[in-house]
Automatic annotation (TrEMBL):
Record's protein name: Response regulator
Keywords: Phosphoprotein
Keyword Phosphoprotein: yes
Residue ranges occupied by any Response regulatory domain in the UniProt entry: 2-119
Stored Pfam families: Response_reg
Protein origin, superkingdom: Bacteria
Length: 126
């Protein structure tokens, strides 16, 4: 399955994409939310988005809301360095099926496990 990875940290984006590819995933990367949104509008094969919440040009939360407006089945793993961002779970964003959050810094194996769990959810929901 194809994933979209959106993070403005080039080094982390490269390492994360490499690990996901080693686990058999096709990965498309974007450096900011606007680029991620442009990819999501044109690339229908994407089943899951791994995105930083705080991004330049268009934040991850807005990008995901726009994408899920068109494709509600899209799974999302938010990442963030800011624990206060967990407030997303209190306003219902993370309560939606197929969504999760991971605090940075994270172990790449933990991220891969979360991705697999979300994709399993996507497979059973379709």
């Amino acid at each position: 399955m194809t994933l979209l990875l959106v993070d403005d940290d080039c080094s982390l984006r490269r390492r994360t994409a490499s690990r996901l590819r080693r686990h058999g995933h096709a990965v498309i990367t974007a450096a900011h939310g606007q680029e991620g949104w442009m990819i999501l509008r044109t690339e229908s094969s994407i089943r899951l988005v791994v995105t930083e919440v705080q991004l330049p040009l268009l934040d991850g939360r807005t990008m995901v809301a726009m994408a899920r407006g068109r494709r509600p089945e899209l799974c999302v793993l938010f990442t963030t360095r800011h624990p206060e961002t967990l407030a997303l779970s209190h306003d219902g964003v993370l309560a939606q099926p197929g969504m999760d959050m991971l605090l940075k810094p994270f172990d790449l194996d933990l991220l891969v496990g979360r991705v697999h769990a979300l994709l399993q959810h996507a497979t059973h929901s379709s």
